[in-house]
Design brief:
Low-confidence stretches: 1-11
CATH architecture of the largest domain: 2-Layer Sandwich
Shape: globular
Order of helices and strands: EHEHEHEHEHEHEHHEEEEEEEEHHEE
Largest sheet: 9 strands, mixed
CATH class of the largest domain: Alpha Beta
Radius of gyration: 21 Å
Strand order of the largest sheet: 15-14-13-12-7-11-10-9-16
Bound molecules: nicotinamide-adenine-dinucleotide
Distance between the termini: 9 Å
Oligomer: single chain
CATH superfamily of the largest domain: Dihydrodipicolinate Reductase, domain 2
């Protein structure tokens, strides 16, 4: 379904004038190292974090030190009751198993929600969140921070300039030598426990892979086939590879926690050229002459290399979040409750869970709703 049919454009609403007043649910790694510094970078005229709900006592103590004067609670419900009328949005940064519950509790109380990826661990939960945002007229905004990496913005510029023509094929490889770790104070290996994570690397990182594929192909896929493997005694996968069919193209992805290096490699292929990204390195090849007998029928190419510093090794992505938070604030001001980002985050959950279903069924192809933008 095209995004526009899901959006309800009405004037945005804030509980307060001026800065957006936020409450964080889950003060762990990404909250402490990514979101909070990015809110600070944006400045107190844009965002003020006034409350934190955190189930772990050691983390509550750290929140009190890092955010002097902030109101700290043990549960998000306690926080939502106590902060009624004092906050505009809730930043959901807990492990995925609790995203839907906390987001629904916040949206139903008339609050906007910024939600870490994945939006939810089931399509039904993700749909319920989108439905609630529309019914309540409040923004549900996913953390699609990879779109704000300078190198990914550089890719977007190449595509917008129409230099390589219509994109027909995308490959996305995410190599990690281990699963990402949470803070030591709580369960730092929760990504290896399905009851917290909802899955392995595909549930953890797949959203970043898939929303980039949607963006570059300008559409949602119509089918997927997948294969996965787990190397240790865990109930979450280490490796997932998949092929997706799009209305006018294809994509393939490989995600690994057992690689020999930490790196992303993306290739984007258009009718007249291609882009290759390897962390900060961007190579753009453009066809400069028509295919002819003199060149073996392949065409004539010009290739540019550029380094676009994006700080990939730093998993906190503060600069990327800083840029993304502007879009969150804009969505609130515009009353864009369910934006293309939100729709993409729902499609990501559907794709990841469909990939799991395919992998568990001998890689049988699964149909998806699909659709062009
Ligand atoms: N967008 C990105 O680049 C990025 C990077 C890392 C993590 N993340 C996402 O952020 C989320 C958190 O990951 P993390 O690495 O920060 O994990 P973490 O373990 O470091 O932090 C999670 C925190 O949430 C707390 N918590 C757990 N359940 C809670 C609940 N019901 N209510 C309140 N507090 C609760 C824990 O005590 C812990 O302090 C996950 O969804 C993850 O996918 C996103």
């Amino acid at each position: 379904m095209p995004l526009e049919t899901l959006s309800t454009r009405e004037p945005g609403k804030r509980a307060s004038s001026g800065a957006l007043r936020g409450a964080i649910a889950g003060y762990g790694f990404i909250s402490e190292q990514g979101h909070v510094p990015a809110y600070a970078l944006a400045g107190p005229e844009c965002f003020r974090i006034v409350a934190v709900a955190e189930r772990c006592a050691a983390r509550r103590a750290k929140a009190r030190v890092a955010l002097p004067g902030v109101h700290v609670y043990e549960s998000h419900l306690e926080m939502l009751d106590a902060e009624r009328g004092n906050i505009d949005f809730v930043d959901v940064s807990t492990p995925p198993c609790d995203h839907a519950r906390i987001a629904l509790d916040a949206l139903s109380r008339g609050l906007h929600v910024l939600c870490e990826k994945p939006l939810a661990t089931t399509t039904a939960d993700a749909r319920a969140m989108v439905r609630m945002a529309r019914e309540q007229g409040r923004v549900l905004f996913p953390c699609h921070n990879y779109k704000h990496a300078p190198v990914v913005k550089a890719v977007r510029q190449v595509l917008d300039a129409k230099d390589i023509g219509r994109v027909r094929m995308v490959t996305l490889q995410t190599f990690r030598n281990t699963h990402a770790k949470g803070v030591d104070d709580w369960r730092k290996d929760w990504r290896r426990e399905r009851r917290f994570s909802g899955g392995g690397i595909a549930m953890d990182h797949g959203s970043h892979t898939f929303y980039l594929a949607f963006d570059w192909l300008g559409a949602y896929p119509t089918s997927i086939t997948a294969k996965m493997s787990t190397l240790g005694p865990f109930d979450t996968e280490d490796n997932l590879s998949c092929s997706m069919t799009f209305p006018e193209g294809t994509a393939s992805a490989h995600l690994s926690w057992t690689a020999g290096v930490r790196k992303v490699i993306y290739t984007i292929h258009g009718e007249r050229g291609a882009v290759r990204v390897e962390d900060d390195d961007v190579e753009v090849s453009r066809m400069t002459g028509d295919a002819g007998a003199g060149d073996g029928g392949h065409g004539v190419w010009a290739t540019n290399h550029e380094r676009v510093s994006s700080n990939w090794k730093d998993a906190s992505h503060v600069g990327w979040f800083r840029s993304m938070f502007d879009h969150f604030a804009r969505a609130i001001d515009a009353g864009d409750w369910v934006s293309r980002e939100t729709e993409s985050s729902l499609r990501c959950v559907d794709l990841i869970t469909s990939a799991y279903a395919s992998a568990l069924d001998g890689s049988r192809e699964r149909e998806l709703t699909g659709g062009r933008w």
